[in-house]
Specification:
single chain, 293 residues, Phosphoenolpyruvate Carboxykinase, domain 3, 2 domains, nine-stranded mixed sheet
Length: 293
């Protein structure tokens, strides 16, 4: 199975039933020979499933608990080992990747519907860390497109990102939603920054295999009045770094992600948008967005 995400090719060796169980993958599905046509320079990673892997020894380098799941990571000299578990359901799987995440193996196997959700998580982890070495990051944001250009709204869960996107959809003619949770930012060598849809969009089923030039970023803050403040490149860098997903304590991927984020922060206007959830706030951010075109 071959997927194209942000114009990167991912080859997944798994049972074909996965594409039916994971409809969010369908817009990104390519012909099986797409990886050969695209060439080695566009091949991001190969993910092999149902491979027998030994347990990781010793204490993990870092742990996290995203969405009630337990993620343990071992950063070793020649590889990265990962264990993802859902304690409440008694589900556990392992993953092993080379240090550039080009070749990835997992012992994931099909035992039930919930296993497909786990495969979806494994694909996202593979994309995050493989793309880190290719000037590409997955960012926690809601993103809309208008005038064939993209704008993204950043901030923690519950701050109003999706609400502000809906205000644009309602009040800014010609606006459409690109992704409502995990769009992709890609920095090109000639300086262009593009934002892409991805197979991961939170609670909103919005899966578009499309990319447009990114023109502005807004960090959402709830307030009693509507006001926007332009950030400096250094302030923008710090803000964006907190919005991207990365492996803590991994110097290799962190260095690459930092360079990508610095490149984006130096090229794309970033604002703090202190706002109420109302039409006037959307019109304010749209006015600033138009100035960036």
């Amino acid at each position: 199975m071959v997927l194209s995400i942000a114009d990167w090719i991912l080859k997944i060796e798994c049972r074909s039933l996965a594409i039916e169980a994971l409809p969010n993958w369908k817009p990104f599905l390519m012909p099986d020979e797409a990886d050969e046509v695209a060439g080695e320079e566009s091949l991001l990673a190969v993910l092999q499933t149902e491979v027998s892997l030994p347990a990781c020894g010793g204490s993990p380098t870092t742990t996290a608990r995203p969405d009630g799941r337990l993620l343990c990571i071992w950063l070793l000299p020649g590889c990265c080992c990962l264990e993802l578990a859902v304690p409440d359901k008694g589900i556990r799987c392992r993953l092993r990747a080379d240090r550039n995440w080009r070749h990835v193996q997992t012992d994931w196997g099909l035992n039930g519907v919930s296993d497909y959700d786990l495969l979806n998580d494994l694909l996202m982890l593979t994309f995050i860390y493989a793309s880190a070495f290719r000037h590409t990051v997955l960012v926690h944001a809601s993103c809309v497109v208008t005038n064939d250009a993209g704008v993204a709204f950043l901030g923690p869960s519950g701050i109003g990102k999706s609400t502000h996107s809906r205000l644009w959809l309602k009040h800014i003619p010609g606006t459409r939603l690109l992704n409502d949770d995990q769009p992709v930012l890609r920095l090109f060598p000639w300086g262009e920054v593009r934002v892409y849809g991805s197979p991961w969009s939170g609670k909103t089923p919005c899966y578009h295999n499309e990319g447009v030039e990114l023109k502005a970023l807004f960090r959402m803050e709830q307030a009693s009045e509507n006001r926007a403040i332009r950030l400096s490149p250094l302030q923008s860098f710090r803000l964006l770094l907190g919005a991207v997903l990365l492996i803590g304590r991994d110097g290799m991927s962190f260095a690459c992600i930092s360079r990508t984020v610095a490149g984006v922060a130096g090229r794309i206007p970033v604002y703090v948008l202190r706002n109420r959830p109302e039409r006037e706030a959307a019109e304010l951010s749209y006015t600033l967005f138009r100035e960036c075109l």
